[in-house]
Amino acid sequence: MTDATWEKNPANVRAARSYVKSRFIYLLIGLGLLVAVGYLLVTGTLGGAYYITVDELVADSSKVDKTVRVAGAVDGDTIRFDQETNTLHFTVVNIPNDNEAIREAGGLGEVLHLALQNPDATRLDVVWPTGEMPDLLQHEAQAIMNGRLDENGVFQANEVLLKCPTRYSDDVPDQVVSQ
Asked: Do both 62 and 85 map to the same domain?
């Protein structure tokens, strides 16, 4: 019978250590990516509401000159486009930030309409250097804006997302024919 002996070969030891080291590096990179994705998920979903209301922005002086996301109903009578500076000026009115309250009030279209009818609702002037007049910027549209409130109480928007309430109505279009 043959005797088997094992000798430590320096090349085998180096290869084993290199393998363990590379696996460890990949493990650290994977854990780092997992922590980064977890952080982004937590701060994106639990970090607060999708947007704050006009009331919340105006009432909190600590938000002046801080980047925030705010939403309101567009007052169509205040929309002005300055062609020389390519800047839009308009006013938004406070709307609730609670989906349940919006549902109970009759939907987004009704909430936007009622907000603009309320003379006591908080209003916020918005300046948006956009370069063009968007089609959806109209009376009773919902504007969700990123930007900052300046020291004069004017919201300097750098991004505006618009929702037209007629695009979300529950009514069936007239051209649909039932069969």
From this structure: yes
